[in-house]
Structure formats: C-alpha cells, structure tokens
C-alpha cells in the first residue's frame, strides 16, 4: 500500500502544471534606447503569461561583446540591424534576426533659450556641451554625427561633444545639466519619467540613416521555451502599440 501511494503521489506531481512563479525568468539584453518602452512591454508580457523577465541595459556594442564572451542572455534587442547580423554570423543565434522597431532621433535641451524651430542656428551659436552616445558602440551616436555632417555643423559642434557610454547616459547628461543639449532617442523623451523636462525637436529623417532595430533569439534560449514566447510577443499588436506610444515606427 505504501509503495502504491508513493507511486500515485509521484504521478500526480509529474502531471501538475508548472508554477510560472517558479520558472526561470527570460534573460534579455536590451539596447539603452529601448529601456522605458521595454519595461512596459515586459510588464505586459508577464501579466499575460506569468513569465518573469530579467532585463539588462547597455549599448548595443557592449552587449555584443558580452554575448561573444559567454553572457547567458537568451534574447537581444539591438539598436541596429548590423550588430545582430554579426552575432548571427558568429554562431550566436538560434533563429534569424527580426526587425522589431524603427527608431527616431531628436535634439533635446532643458535650456529655456532652446529654439526648436531654429535648432540648427541655435546649436551653432550655443556654447554649452552637446551630448551624444558613443558612436563606436551605439548606433544613435553614429547617426548623431551623421546629422552634424549633413547640416555642416561638425566644425562648430564637435569640439563641444560629450559622449555617454550609451544613449541613456547621453540623456542623463542633458537631464543633469552637464550638457546644454543632446541628440537622444525619441523613445527616451517620450517616457513618462521625462515628461515636462525641457523641449525637443524631431531631427528630419533625411539627415541620417534609418535606425532599423533588430532582435535576436540567442543560443541559450534553447533551454528556456519562454524566451521564444517573448520573441514572438514582440511582434504582437499589444507590443506594437506600446512601441508606437514611445515614438517607434513599426517595420
């Protein structure tokens, strides 16, 4: 009888549904420009599925280095499409990269004298620091340099540039007053945390290359089926609505 009860108990345990709270969280590496939008996406995903999400934020270049060095991320949301392609070519991917959003660049300042309508002349005559993300590691920083070249502002602005490790740090420079203005992701200035802080102007899309942002399901995701669920969810209408609220265009 005792052996029968133990066998029955073991069978019941084996057929019981898994408690989502005990499941391993999905480990996601996220480009800094997406931090506020992704926090909302992750919260909505968790509400819908019960699956927890563990996010780390940095520049796309820094994340790529971490992945190549063995960081156990299961999903990567990049600020460009080139970095995921390189990782895929290096054998880091479980599936081909997929575009999840198109980013936009803005010029943001908390200076009361900032003139969004005449931002080029204002930027040329201003004397304060101008923040950008590190162009070697962050696509938004590279595109900011392209904007300066397009409007022939490089000579007047480049000596005043200060670089953040990523676009979120560049925004922090503006927010703290360490920089008079900054080229930052539109998604950052639209975040609730930034509402009412200074003014910003959209940079015309013709002045920089499209910021195509791809995501990549990484090899460690093979051990966590929930990572694929989040990968698919990022293409859902619910996730798209959140991304659009933060100023992203859809692929």
Mean pLDDT, as a whole number? 92
What is the count of DSSP helices, taking H or I runs of 4+ residues? 11
Radius of gyration: 22 Å
End-to-end Cα distance: 62 Å
What is the CATH topology assignment of the largest domain? D-Maltodextrin-Binding Protein, domain 2
Give a structural overview:
The chain is α/β, with parallel strands linked by helices and 251 residues long. It folds into 2 domains: 2-102 and 211-245, D-Maltodextrin-Binding Protein, domain 2 (3-Layer(aba) Sandwich), CATH 3.40.190; 103-207, 3-Layer(aba) Sandwich (D-Maltodextrin-Binding Protein, domain 2), CATH 3.40.190. Helix content is 40%, strand content 20%. The protein contains 11 helices and 10 strands. It has helices at residues 2-15, 35-49, 60-68, 82-89, 119-125, 139-150, 154-157, 167-176, 186-189, 225-233, 237-245, and strands at residues 26-31, 53-58, 75-77, 98-103, 105-109, 130-133, 161-164, 181-185, 199-202, 211-217. The strands form 2 sheets. The chain has a 5-stranded mixed sheet, sandwiched between helices. It has a 5-stranded mixed sheet with strand order 7-6-8-5-9. Strand 1 (26-31), helix 2 (35-49) and strand 2 (53-58) form a beta-alpha-beta unit. Helix 2 (35-49) runs antiparallel to helix 11. The longest helix is centred in the first third of the chain and has 15 residues, at 35-49. 42% of the residues are buried. Mean pLDDT is 92; it is low at 4-21.
């Amino acid at each position: 009888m005792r052996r029968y009860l133990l066998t029955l108990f073991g069978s019941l345990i084996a057929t019981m549904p898994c408690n989502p709270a005990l499941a391993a969280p999905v480990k996601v590496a996220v480009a800094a420009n997406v931090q506020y939008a992704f926090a909302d996406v992750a919260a909505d995903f968790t509400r819908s599925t019960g699956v927890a999400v563990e996010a780390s934020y940095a520049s796309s270049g820094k994340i790529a280095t971490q992945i190549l060095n063995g960081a156990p991320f299961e999903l990567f949301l990049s600020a460009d499409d080139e970095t995921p392609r390189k990782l895929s070519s290096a054998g880091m991917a479980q599936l081909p990269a997929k575009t999840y959003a198109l980013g936009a660049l803005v010029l943001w300042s908390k200076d009361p004298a900032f003139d969004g309508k005449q931002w080029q002349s204002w930027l040329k005559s201003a004397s304060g620091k101008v923040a950008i993300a590190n162009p070697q590691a962050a696509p938004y920083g590279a595109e900011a340099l392209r904007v300066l070249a397009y409007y022939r502002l490089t000579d007047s602005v480049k000596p005043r540039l200060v670089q953040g490790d990523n676009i979120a740090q560049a925004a922090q420079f503006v927010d703290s007053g360490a920089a008079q203005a900054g080229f930052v992701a539109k998604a950052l200035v639209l975040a609730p945390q930034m509402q009412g802080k200074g003014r910003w102007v959209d940079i015309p899309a013709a002045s920089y290359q499209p910021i195509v942002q791809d995501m990549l399901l990484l090899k460690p995701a093979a051990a966590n089926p929930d990572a694929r669920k989040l990968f698919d969810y990022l293409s859902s209408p619910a996730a798209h609505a959140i991304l659009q609220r933060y100023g992203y265009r859809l692929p």
